Amino acid sequence: MNIEEKIGENIKNLRKQNGLTQEELADRTELTKSFISLLERGQTAPSVSTLECIVECLGTNLSDFFREDDDQVLVYEQSEYFEKVDKKGNITKWLVPTAQSHNMEPILMTIQPGAELQYDSPHEGEEFGYVIEGAVTLEYGDRKDIVKEGDSFMYTADKKHRLVSASDKVTKVLWISSPPSF
Asked: What is the distance between the alpha carbons of residues 153 and 175, in angstroms, rounded to a whole number?
């Protein structure tokens, strides 16, 4: 497949994802329907400025437009995880090493019995947690809620918050922040 065909295919896919006809895209970009049709079939190539206008109308940018899906990492092996162990033996394991470049950050917390994690100061975003085993007390502002094995929690991170062990055994929590903040 040549570059014109690839550009055309990408435009057509984005246009359909946005629920637009060729005529609607032409109207939004001040181009003709026949030009859009030729582009989508790979029979002509747009100028850089015309392509930039088209992809912006389709809700993206040139960088993302040319990004190959195959370049995206989908699987992270355990050997890639970053792990921090505090003095009490609590473990914070970052499950996606490049999470800072994404919209969310998944972490596996292993909390020792009786342990109290440090407070996290208020910040932007939301956090979600799922207790895989054990139990914790979620301290959120002035609230204290027990979260047991199989339960989950979610909150905006605009109040100080932390987890405290509420179990006589090791507790594991899958914790996801959006945007990444750890």
From this structure: 9
* Closest to 88 in 3D by CA, of 110, 108, 106: 110
Nearest C-alpha neighbor of 51 from the set 72, 31, 78:
31
Which 8-state DSSP code applies to residue 147? Answer: E
**Which of 5-9, 27-31, 129-133 has the largest mean confidence?**
129-133
Q: Which string of DSSP letters, residue by residue, matches 59-77? A: T--HHHHH--GGGS-----
Return the number of other C-beta atoms located less than 10 Å from residue 25's C-beta. Answer: 22
Over residues 75-99, the mean pLDDT reads 90
Contact 3, 65 (CB under 8 A): no
Q: Are 26 and 35 in contact (CB under 8 A)?
A: yes
Q: Which pLDDT does position 34 carry in this prediction?
A: 95
- pTM, rounded to two decimals: 0.62
Comparing CA positions, the residue from 182, 3, 32 lying closest to residue 96 is 182
**CA–CA separation, 123 vs 177, rounded Å?**
11
